[in-house]
């Protein structure tokens, strides 16, 4: 029988309109072979669903939660307040907002003492780094993953050298 790998990372989004950006986190996790799920819920539009998700995540075996939201982005903080798991927040530049993600950045990063949210950059770079931070956390007790991470970092450094050579012509 085929063994089903446990889902370790949950990628939560406030709206399906967040998916094009949050896919960046998912593709990093796929690259490293980390099993993950996508979960749609909103701090404001579906508060009970959000609360239930946050309270049950650790018991389901989830180790890290990545949360992307735009506008008054309270989703990461609300989830962090109801779980002991590390929560990584990605502020999004929602097309519905005229503030280009600055609203979401402040809403995500300005948590009161006692409830940490590790806040990434706005948008795609933030989503990508959220995936990488989740991998770094999981690599703390996974030697194989830790070695893959070292390989990724080395390849990134190499690619800069290659680009430099191309620039010089
Ligand atoms: C936030 O409101 C979502 O995370 C999304 O970024 C933003 C706009 O949502 P939609 O109106 O596109 O559903 O809650």
Structure, explained:
47% of the residues lie in helices and 15% in strands. By secondary structure, the chain is an alpha/beta fold. Bound molecules: 5-O-phosphono-beta-D-ribofuranose.
Report helical residue fraction. 40-55%
Q: What's the β-strand tally?
A: 5
Looking at the structure, the CATH topology is Rossmann fold
Secondary-structure element order, as H and E? EHEHEHEHEHH
What is the count of distinct domains?
1
What strand line-up does the widest sheet have? 2-1-3-4-5
Rounded mean pLDDT is 96
User: What are the bound molecules?
Assistant: 5-O-phosphono-beta-D-ribofuranose
Low-confidence sequence ranges? none
Instruction: Specify the structural class.
Output: alpha/beta
